[in-house]
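Entry, Tuesday afternoon. Goal for today is a structural model of the target with zinc ion bound, before we commit to ordering more compound. Inputs were pasted exactly as handed over by J.K., no edits. I checked the ligand SMILES twice against the vendor sheet because last time a stereocentre got dropped in transcription.
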Amino acid sequence: MKSIYYSIISGFLALFLTFNLGCFSLNTARQLGNTILEEISDVNIFTDEEELRLGKAFDEQHAREVKFYTDTVVTNYIKDLGQNLVRHSKRNDIRYTFKVVDTNDINAYAVPGGFIYVNLGLIRAVHTESELAFVLAHEIGHIVGQHTMKRLTQVYGVEILKQIILDEDSSKLSKLITDILAAGWLFKYSRDNERESDFYGVQNVYDIGISPEGSIRFFETLKQVHRREPSTLEKLISTHPVHSERISNVRNQIKGLPPKFGLQVDSSRFQQVKRRIR
Ligand SMILES: [Zn+2]
């Protein structure tokens, strides 16, 4: 949280100094104003604790709606891979929780406070660990970018949202979550959100020594499934839109990464998990 404030304040300071040292015209003043407005609309002013409170309330509600998969060979694998990515992510000072959902729909999603859910259907659909690692890293990217918190702030306003989250009577929070879920937009990310999460995801897998090419393979897997069984992809596509732009973006990012020896494409542990859930 602090780092966001620092980067914004230092950003403003840098802008201020640049404009003061240079020629300060009306036009540049207007641009500066616009930049500050854009920065403010992107600020999330909730503490990690507040974000976690919201995430926990969602998780409790979600547990009543879906069936979590409990085979520890599978859940421990997802947890280990996820936590390894988290350690090398850009937001590793909060606790993350990874859960596997027992459904054949192909999807993965994240909610504020570090809760990440992966459907069995997604683990069944991907071919290698590097594909799965990219998906997890992409979801971590939504937590890093605090995309849902920012969206909630825009919709409800800071004060109302804070009051609901901090209210001792948790029924207001439950109602908020029911309303958000009914509205169906909790996981609907913008193109910018998706671009940012893909960017974090590619870097994150590369940093832990997994091949970032898994991202491209994953998009290809989605195309194949879409031709074969489009209904299993409905949720994923409605929440994380797959534009051709996303594929070319990750391709370009990968091209720019320094060559690294021994990047892993797959693992025997992943294949063991695949056999178990076949
Ligand atoms: Zn996404």
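The chain has two domains: 2-41, 48-276.
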